[in-house]
Design brief:
This protein is an alpha+beta fold. It has a six-stranded antiparallel β-sheet. Strand 4 and strand 5 form a beta hairpin. The protein is globular.
């Protein structure tokens, strides 16, 4: 795992911004994806040498004005700006704002009641280890046939993605799902949490090169929402919109809700969970 998350994030975002987005000509000889360091340095009003030190991890303490300038130059979203600020503040790789508290596997009654109210929608309660702690019956019917819940609860989503061959059949866009799984696992204390470090070390062996490469190249931005595809053995191809609902810092958990992203998927999920037609209405995908 990279111990230079700030530099990794800056480099990844720099390479994702096109010259056209910031009003620069692409030029015929451009070989660098996205912006060159010199271009970002000019846009942010810093020296190339300083930007290089930040990306290489030789300087991990940008001032608030520099952090703001980099965020503006990189056209960061609000969530990305918050993430950049957190990385700039937590320059010590051993820093853990959660202290000695491990990943929480306790389920408060109010949280369980909230999950129950989400039926018939597929929904799960997860912690920072990407463990599924509780789920709705709708989720069991959606993901049970794919093997994700074979061992009962808690079930490890990230282990399923990287070590169960059925994951590639279940998720046609497996590469994207694998990226997001690593991003979510790295978000927060990372290796400063002994249980997270233990899981990472395990997956470096069992997940092989696919996991190791992502640990070195994917920044720890949590996956909060989007649309993905699931190949269900009974219902066929489904387009699923997902939303992550963060609980309090004391809970250190989140609820992930899955909803149909089109009418065809809505009808398929209604049949799957045994509900009347229209029980699950499609959301804009």
């Amino acid at each position: 795992m990279s111990d230079n998350e700030l530099g990794l994030f800056l480099r990844q975002r720099r390479e994702a911004v096109t010259p056209a987005e910031v009003g620069l000509p692409a030029g015929p000889r451009r070989r660098t994806p996205g912006l060159r360091r010199s271009e970002l340095a000019t846009l942010a009003g810093v020296s190339i040498e300083y930007l290089t030190r930040l990306e290489q991890g030789r300087d991990r303490n940008p001032s608030p004005p520099v952090t703001q300038a980099l965020a503006d130059a990189l056209r960061l979203s609000r969530g990305e700006r918050v993430h950049l600020l957190q990385l700039a503040k937590a320059s010590d790789p051993g820093f853990n704002c959660r202290g000695g508290f491990g990943p929480n596997r306790e389920i408060r009654p109010a949280v369980q009641a909230t999950l129950d109210l989400l039926e018939p929608a597929p929904a799960v309660l997860m912690n920072r280890l990407s463990e599924i702690l509780a789920c709705t019956e709708g989720y069991r019917r959606l993901m049970g046939p794919a093997g994700l819940l074979d061992g009962g609860l808690p079930s490890s989503y990230v282990r399923y993605i990287f070590t169960d061959p059925r994951a590639r059949e279940t998720y046609p866009d497996w590469d994207h799902k694998a990226d997001k799984a690593v991003s979510t696992l790295k978000q927060g204390p990372g290796r400063a949490d002994p249980q997270v470090a233990q899981l990472i070390d395990e997956l470096l062996v069992t997940g092989g090169a696919e996991f190791a490469r992502r640990m070195d190249s994917i920044p720890g931005m949590a996956d909060t929402n989007g649309v993905g595809r699931i190949q269900h053995p009974e219902a066929g191809m489904l387009r699923i919109a997902y939303e992550s609902l963060q609980l309090s810092a004391d809970d250190d958990q989140f609820i992930l809700v899955l909803l149909p992203a089109d009418d065809v998927t809505a009808e398929a999920l209604d049949r799957l969970v045994g509900r009347r037609p229209g029980g699950l209405r499609a959301v804009a995908g």
